[in-house]
Predict the structure.
Amino acid sequence: MHHFTAADLHAFEKIYRLNLVNALPGYKPANLVGTADDEGRTNLAIFSSVVHLGSDPAVLGMVTRPTTVPRHTYKNVRATGCYTLNHVPATHAGAAHYTSANFPREESEFDACGFTPVYRDGFAAPYVAESQVSIGLRLAEELPIKLNGTVLLIGTVEHVYIAPEALRPDGTLDLAAIDTACISGLESYYRATPLARYAYARAGQGPQRIP
Ligand SMILES: Cc1cc2nc3c(=O)[nH]c(=O)nc-3n(C[C@H](O)[C@H](O)[C@H](O)COP(=O)(O)O)c2cc1C
């Protein structure tokens, strides 16, 4: 086993540290965040930090990097209160990755990276037509993380769109059926293969496999 202490991590060359530490959480979700500014100019950016915070009300969090440089997604979310999360299809991993490039504000990543913006049900932020799972959220809370200047954006779910082949009768999602990608670090994209499904765990019963 390699053993690294906090002091070792701190001493590593910047890119090596960034690569290693970004991979520590394990597989992360791959979402494209769709926003628009006050004038309706669209923006799209890949985010891997989306996390479930609660089901009733449905709440999701995502972490935005320090706002010391212009962050178009964050600016648009604050301006309109609305943003969308759109699962990255494995077939579109390269295009999704390209949205992380530093595009000027006037240039939409939708056009530059080959995604189609679509507005649904009067919501102010654009969805990604190519995604099989899309969510419309409204900013509810911002939690500044004092330690490093990042911000946890907390949004309530207002709309959910799911391709029928992904939605099982019990409400769970079959993400392999729609080929949703996942991420490690800031550079590796994976296609997931199903391993097993288990029923709600109860002490004394052992893991109960769902056939
Ligand atoms: C795989 C991957 C995951 C990323 N995840 C995040 C994230 O969770 N939060 C974040 O602020 N930036 C993340 N980024 C960086 C943004 O995609 C990048 O800063 C982008 O330019 C932001 O665009 P914007 O200025 O239009 O908001 C990620 C980049 C990559 C390649």
Observations:
- Residues 14-23 form the longest helix (10 residues).
- The chain is about 15% helix and 35% strand.
- Residues 43, 45-49, 63-65, 71-73, 97, 100, 102, 183, 186 surround flavin mononucleotide (CB under 6 Å).
